[in-house]
Amino acid sequence: MATKAYLVFLLLDYIFTIGQTVHIVPTVLVHGGAGKIAEGVIPSKLNGVKMAAHIGYETLLSTGDVVSAVEEAVRSMETNGAFNAGYGSVLNWEGDIQMDAAIMNGSDLNAGCVSLITDILHPISLARCVMEKTRHVYLAGRDAMIFAAENNFTLLPEGALITNESKQALEDYKNSINGGVTEFDFQSISIKNGLTDGMETFGSPGTVGAVAIDANGNVAAATSTGGITGKMPGRIGDSPILGAGTYADNAAGSVSATGHGESIMRFNVASRILALVKYEGLTAQEATSKVLDEMRERFNQTAGVISIDHQGNLGIYFTSQHMPWAYQTSNELHYGVTKSITSWKKLK
Questions:
Q1: Is the Cβ–Cβ distance between 212 and 308 less than 8 Å?
Q2: What 3-state DSSP class applies to 267?
Q3: Per its UniProt record, what CDD domains does this chain match (predicted)?
Q4: CA distance linking residue 270 with residue 5, whole number of Å
Q5: 214: annotated binding-site residue?
Q6: Distance CA 345, CA 58 (A)
């Protein structure tokens, strides 16, 4: 009798467990940078993130690979001059482009990161190349460019990625500092294009990123950026730093951050979010909003994050005025740019 009762218990427990199984819907979620965005350029940024989410989702369907999905989503924004990544990246103090990128696979924690990249349209693909073709995680500067050439990346003519908008932004930034200065003094020049509300932003705040999850719970993350206008040459932001601007782990989820890079690095934003998911049971949205609110309180700086937790819950949150974002799941495309208005449409 006792054995029969025990078997009934096991059967009921099995049925309950099956009933609690999480059904994960494949999703690709992207962002186009957090900050104060001029009204006139919001439509182009929204169109860009919607297209990126669609491209990433179609890639996920056709390849079944979340890493390829986030890479292709980011590549689409690196070719779009509306964003601060690839073509359209902002300029450092000397008028040069130096880009950062990272990509990470949540199934094995493999990752690739690059910094100080010049004259390559797709730093995110170079980061993936580092991940897949070297025994290292991070390459930077001249040697990263040599590696790119050795792996048949197209090296563009010097300055080919520079836009008139990025040149004007650098000029405006320099003119805003004591009426214009001619030499870089990083000890006396404050970073006036930080992302606190009400502070003027010079150049696009359009760092780009993507996170994705498949039906089996595999996640990936990718982030690419040109940094901040007028930065000191050699400056590296949060985007390529694992645990700060980018991270993915099937056990918790994936994160891509955007905003004030120095604060995001100091606060270890991505790791904090995923720790709350894994160890405290918060959803992606709960963890993301908690960490960004705490970061703002601690540093008085703003940021934005897109995230997906290991159960497929999405996190979309920003403490800045704007952050273009979009995600596609099944035949629905959702998108927004302000905190109060979100939109969606059915796709054919």
A1: yes
A2: helix
A3: ASRGL1_like
A4: 47
A5: no
A6: 16
Q: Would you say residue 87 lies in a domain?
A: yes
Number of domains the chain contains: 1
242 located within any domain: yes
96 labeled binding residue: no
Under DSSP, is residue 298 helix (H, G, I), strand (E, B) or coil? helix
Task: Answer yes or no: 118 catalytic.
Answer: no
Three-state secondary-structure class, residue 196: coil
CATH assignment of the domain containing 44:
3.60.20.30
* Six token digits for residue 280: 């405290």
d(CA 292, CA 116): 27
Of 28, 181, 159, the C-alpha closest to 98 is 159
Q: Which residue has the higher pLDDT, 218 or 174?
A: 218
Phi, psi of 270 (to 5 degrees): -60, -45
> β-strand 110-117 against 138-140: which pairing, if any?
parallel
pTM (two decimals) = 0.91
Q: How far apart are CA 283 and CA 281, in angstroms?
A: 7
On whether 259 is known to bind a ligand per the annotation, the reply is: yes
Whether 48 maps to a domain, the answer reads yes
CA 282 to chain centre: 21
Task: Provide the token pair at 316.
Answer: 């979309």
C-alpha–C-alpha distance, residues 219 and 27, integer Å: 10
Q: Is the dihedral of CA 287, 290, 295, 298 positive or negative?
A: negative
Q: What is the pLDDT of residues 9-33, one digit of tens each?
A: 555 554 444 445 679 999 999 999 9
Q: Tell me if 238 is assigned to a ligand binding site.
A: yes
Query: Per-residue pLDDT averaged across 266-284, rounded?
Result: 98
Distance CA 302, CA 227 (A): 15
pLDDT tens per residue, range 232-255:
999 999 999 999 999 999 999 999
Helix and strand numbers (H, E) in the chain are 9, 13
Distances (CA, A) of 313 to 29, 115, 183, 325, 333: 11, 31, 48, 16, 16
The catalytic position among 163, 207, 225, 288 is 207
Q: Is 136 annotated as a binding residue?
A: no
Residue from 342, 282, 290 nearest 313 by CA:
282
Helix (H) or strand (E) segment spanning residue 117? strand 110-117
Q: Would residue 134 count as lying in a domain?
A: no
Residue ranges making up the domain that contains 33: 21-110+161-346
